[in-house]
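Before surveying the methods themselves, let us examine one representative protein, pairing a chain with its fold in token form.
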Amino acid sequence: MKNYTAIIVAAGNSSRFKQTNNKLLYKINDTNTVIEKTLALFLSDPFCTEIIVGVNDEILNFLLKKNYQSQKLHFVIGGLERVDTIYHCLINHKIKNEMVMIHDGVRCFVSLDFINKLNQTFSKANYEVLVPMLPITETLKKVNNCLVEKTINRDEYFTIQTPQVFKTTLLYNVYDEYFHTKNKKIIYDDSYLVELFAEKTEIHTILGEKQNIKITYLDDLKLLNLGK
């Protein structure tokens, strides 16, 4: 395995969480909030030698008050959209490792074993991009104006998770291309930028973890018996 840099996206406003507090500051146990649990995982990984956290003012103030100060921890103020936040992280901090893992701050249930698996797979095969995925188990239908148009073959489709792993040079290149193009598209995940601006680059996949959910709604926590 190799040393890597983690970029943690933690600048969202939690508009869909339906709670007073930002979901990143939601307490999942007596000691840790969502963002703290996420950071603790990467801080505990000896192969993660650099952590860049894209934050808003609220998250930054919270973490500073909690005395989150580590030589490998760096904070960067993010932008309006996720893609803006990651771009800010890239242009405001010179990444020293050849491998970058980009992870959603709200995915606090990913395991260190899985992160090690990503690292090992990426390093051994010398990939440029590696993304975790899960098969769709529900029936998938195309709907227009609340009417079903057709049923889709779900075997051809997967949901994508983070951390997504990239060669650092590739990541810089596709983000630079995106922010210099005139006709910008909605960017759903970072590997989509590779599809758009590095078409010949193979995007490899690996089976993800079911527990690695993205906390979007309060019900996501209730399903794990963590909601209050």
User: Anything to note?
Assistant: Strands lie at 4-10, 48-55, 73-77, 99-104, 129-135, 140-144, 147-152, 158-160, 164-167, 204-207. The first strand starts at residue 4 and ends at 10. Helices lie at 34-43, 57-65, 82-91, 112-125, 168-178, 190-197, 218-222. The mean pLDDT is 91.
